[in-house]
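INTERNAL AUDIT FORM
Audit reference: QA-55
Scope: verify that the stored structure record matches its stored sequence.
Auditor: D.O.
Record contents follow.
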Amino acid sequence: MSPQPEPSTQEVLAALVERVPGAEAIVAQHHEVGAEAPERPASPENIEINTQSMDQLRHILYRHVPTVRISDTFEQPEMAADLFEHDMKKLNILRQRGAESFAKQEAALQQLLA
């Protein structure tokens, strides 16, 4: 099986506009190379939307590359954290939940890497 050629920028943008709601306006607004994205404060909703968008973009660009996504959602408000979180008890709980999330996908990951 020969590797598939990388898609052109135009093909990627066309696929993005076709599959991601609202992408057409963003692509039109930021068509020039180097245009800066609008400032948006990070929130759990933005981060989840960004995570979903990145997964969709990964599928568009690298659909031929097998992947395993490890990302359970922790919806308890008391587990909310940002990059500056310093509560060691909370960070330890998040680490434990991350290990549990990994454990759920470990067999798929081993199969992928075998």
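Auditor finding: record pair retrieved intact. Confidence is low (pLDDT under 50) at residues 32-38.
Action required: none
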